[in-house]
């Protein structure tokens, strides 16, 4: 469903006893941190509760990596999230898209 409070598509789910909020921001990539920060406030989530899924040009197509914290490594969407949350402590799932 569209959640106008955070300008995103949101879905609530439960898996293995955990309550999940799946969020797809509807803003430009370099502003999506505003949606993530709004959702974090609405659903009472801290940066450590957030799993950020994003593309990675430096990984081969289809390869995935997970890491905790760190810099944005030039990704404007990740930088937007770090800036809006005032923290880089979120877990990131990097999905390789390869270079053209």
Protein described:
The chain has 100 residues and is α+β, with helices and mostly antiparallel strands. The protein has a single domain (2-96), classed as Peptidyl-tRNA hydrolase (Rossmann fold), CATH 3.40.50. Helix content is 21%, strand content 35%. The protein contains two helices and six strands. The protein has helices at 32-42, 76-85, and strands at residues 2-3, 8-15, 18-25, 51-56, 64-68, 91-96. Strands 1-2-3 form a three-stranded antiparallel sheet. A three-stranded mixed sheet has the order 4-6-5, with no helix packed on it. Strand 2 and strand 3 form a beta hairpin. Helix 1 (32-42) packs parallel to helix 2 (76-85). The radius of gyration is 13 Å and the shape is globular. It starts with a strand and ends with a strand. The mean pLDDT is 94.
Q: Mind summarizing the main beta sheet?
A: 3 strands, antiparallel
Overall pLDDT score: 94
Roughly what fraction of the amino acids lie in strands? 35-45%
Counted up, domains total 1
Number of helices: 2
Structural class designation: alpha+beta
Low-confidence stretches: none
- N to C succession of SSEs: EEEHEEHE
Task: Give the strand order of the largest sheet, numbering strands 1, 2, ... along the chain.
Answer: 1-2-3
For this structure, the CATH topology is: Rossmann fold
Rg of Cα set? 13 Å
User: How many beta-strand runs?
Assistant: 6
CATH class bucket:
Alpha Beta
Tell me the distance between the termini. 33 Å
- Which architecture per CATH? 3-Layer(aba) Sandwich
Approximate shape: globular
Portion of residues within helices: 10-25%
